[in-house]
């Protein structure tokens, strides 16, 4: 049975695959494209498309850089270089003598330099951080070296910073590639300077350049924009290593004309502090300010409107316009309200996990999406001792469960094909992955699998704008402080559920009627748990009332954490737990664990809460504690009015926790009796059922698994190889 | 050498010891008193002094209860029973219908009951906790059952509480003793009702009763008040088990006359919320409000003035007045500014650790202090399978290092001697302990040992008022959330340093010139780390400036933690570390550990930070990281201006950590070169040197230790038995 089903995958045909190609290996390119069934080819940053592309029966993608790659233009128009708001380090005055602050002590001189040409009294701010107020421009002086500011009469014991507009002299992604690949050894490479299309001269140049390029490249079918105008915030330190990275950062989207246009439109003036944000630079972990939200909206409209002019030109040339989700993507906001206006045909993004896969696959208003899989064919993995197969397996097994629920239309790879072919075992593995991927489209009949008859909503300050994007710092990288929360998204990305993203503002207007369960996951004070948003009785009232009327709520970490009026979690009453910060140690809170519960029924090992959240206690004797350690709650369930709540101290992604979340959602929704059909008995295996009656079972691990799945004809035992999948079609199902 | 030195301890003579005695064991009492050299005897709660006391050549202590033990009076004056402010549980309205709140759902009906006789519109408050405001008295109704309040028109989704004045009908300590000892089986026992001397009739009665009692008890030399008027907050739940305990709590010090007198004096009215404090009841972990500080001051003056009338009577009767530090001690405030007015001769307290020992021994304005050692002779330890020797060892070894630094004048035991004599090994051990204790007085020549030539100050919201009392919930009990901070006090209690306690208000006025090192230890938001006190640039400025001018600062846990203006620790600049709450994850903070440092030179194992403090990062490259784990700082040292700072994520008490703190203090004070003479090489052994040239080395563990100590004639190797001590006198030293 199993081999037969797997055989169908292999027969699923060709297409849906993009390969990077390069000059000097034509025969290998032909052979690989045939073997893997690739129907599109691309170049990468630093490679050229070979002449061969004219002969291949494949679509041709070409990377296209809008705001860099023309140093002649950049050098001729230094005033139109992109800018960034930066802050100096904090410097404390140890006495009352004039205090010199080196603005560039922590930044990379080759990438950024203070913009001394602007009106520094307006676009620079010296700040007394101890008091929390800016100094008057008369209270500081810029020295002649161009990078030292002297606070003339500091107060001893106060910390000072200087926020300043800086000029960017190196595109961060090109800088990363340059430094990572040792291009300083290659005399053909230059350090590409970014320029800003907010300036009309540069914009006219960019428009004209694209028109010429489109004329000159008839072989190109798809213009792969990498990307548009503003890079996410990535600034190196004096050691030429990463110092600050925020994949969502708008700090480098600024310019004097834009700031002035903003003031004209919004009626108020933004200051450096609105961007520097006391040194946090409006990290998405910060509950966003009104000014920052306004700036995002302002630039989103600007960026999408200018992108539209580019995509119109691409379409007029008979080509498709594809956007790479990353690099200079700031302002595009794929989940923003003006994204449709950009006129893009497709989005391609790097798949690092199930959640990032959904982040790409769920983007609306494009005809297709493509996932660029890991590993990237770069020397950091593709060296003689590297193990690209392990990375490919990890990436595919994490991504597949997301692709099953929300199918990407295409997959692809990037980098240097010349490196990949040195690892034949890797090519073999790619062949298998591509076959499994194609079967999701062919065997499903083009349909999405069924999902539970209710919606789940992840709530945060960001709501829909950051769909599948919560808790990210750099794109999909692991952080100790985030994995225990991002595990919630990762689990959701592959569960048979319809997931939406709501902001606290949305909740204040009332929870949408099709949402059965709200999920709030994150650390104290962050935009993801909500922080100071919960200092609002109307929000607490709205959520409490939703639950009391029969809604479900799941909190992970520090949900609604904002100490006030007797509780730390503002939803402590509903959750049945609270975080004990010390103020309530005088209250004895007995802890009785109830080990058997619907929610924990499939745990195969003790509950793993990742970094956990310390000091969680029950608020009353009605809380069902499902797991505890060291006198602290780790997992709890409560009834609240007609509704139900579940709390976990952390939920890193693993098979057990994904199953636990799946069960918790069904319990919170009061839908336990409907659960069985949505899951295999073994949590390592997941199932998808389709409107046409097909059933797909897939093994998320690298061990073979035998387990039972639920079919309309009753339970079926199936065996899946390591990483394998099996379709039960028609009578099989 | 060693046996000879130990022999001197044995020869130290008799005295300084109080034993509990009881009727029916005269011969054993005589024999024990002779053997142990006891010079005082006492009874306990529930035991009578035997006739024998008239013959003994010993001082006689008798327990005396001021505010309980006379149920006839209590029953005749129910209006003068003590009161307490309590809160109901939080109850959430799930719809808009009238909401019934049972005031007593979480409290023990035999101990407290709502006072429906008072003006409930004034002394009760229904509270909307979601909004954070009280309801008007017209918005709620007390039902006829006397314990249900109905909120007439609640808002769905809001949480409500009722704060109310309640009558106390059982003295908490007597209740504890009663329930612990099963006195419900003893028909001679009654449940003692407390009465309040704030009422003039009760006060006159209490005065007269003492006069009569003094006349009737010529055999008594020392009136051991146990204690005075107001019990610390200890309330049981409906299960007759502890529900709330705060050894510093003033909730049960209230009465309508006192509240009215307060209003008359202070010019503002206190409300139930001023005591209920959203359910935290002004726990000492809360940064105290002005109202609570005023109430403490108000009651401190009242209590000490009324105690003075009692002590005057005692003195007039030719006896001494001793106060037990505990039970009904609220308002006495041994470190308060009016304590001297109470006219006490002595304080006795239970010794649970070095810090509690110092808490007793350092009390000013008394002629002598006495430590009641553990274990208390109660059946919970003194049963056939109990191990009282282990408890005695633990208590003594922890306490001795504190007693060495600040000698208690006397030690004693409490409970039932009849139980203790069933454990001869325990009596043997007591004999050894008493000999070691006496030697601290005899061999020292009555002098205190030398201390470093600079002061160390522990800073918190409480300052001097809570000297040696920080982080306590119930007297000296272990709490998971506190041991990592209380370890700092415990270490200090036995180090050769002069320790003071300063409040943030003190610091605002300037750090005293003899203080070289400030220590701030505690969890986020607590009065011990300072919480919202740090929302004050003047405080930050004062401490930064102190350090910059050459001061030392040691932070443990979450020092100055109050997220604001770019840092979580307001002293992050000086400390060189900060707590990363998520907002700064975008900033890359490399972590290089410097394993060899003066501070860590004596660690015998890896650094133990107890519960630790997660997410601590360096603020710059000048921070010396001495220990790290999982990418997080655990121990760091920094230079700041002319001063130095040390940071540790936690510091539970053990020999290594005590030594580490000792070294950290010397490093922060810039006094490394003076360190050697203050410590033995092995951290398990400590040394005390005296003005007369004597040197005491003592072994804090139950293993024999051979180590080197520093003497004026050079290093000396000594061998100490388990728990042993050795005096080097005159030429020996």
TrEMBL record, chains A, B:
Gene3D superfamilies: 3.40.50.880, Glycosidases, Immunoglobulins. Residues 15-450 form the Lacto-N-biose phosphorylase-like N-terminal TIM barrel domain. One of its GO terms (molecular function) is 1,4-alpha-oligoglucan phosphorylase activity. Its EC number is 2.4.1.211. Residues 455-672 form the Lacto-N-biose phosphorylase central domain. The keyword Repressor does not apply. InterPro entries: Class_I_gatase-like, Ig-like_fold, Lact_bio_phlase-like_N, Lacto-N-biose_phosphorylase, LBP_M. Keywords: Glycosyltransferase, Transferase. It is an enzyme of class 2 (transferase). It holds the Pfam family LBP_M. GO terms for biological process: carbohydrate metabolic process. NCBIfam families: 1,3-beta-galactosyl-N-acetylhexosamine phosphorylase (TIGR02336). This is 1,3-beta-galactosyl-N-acetylhexosamine phosphorylase.
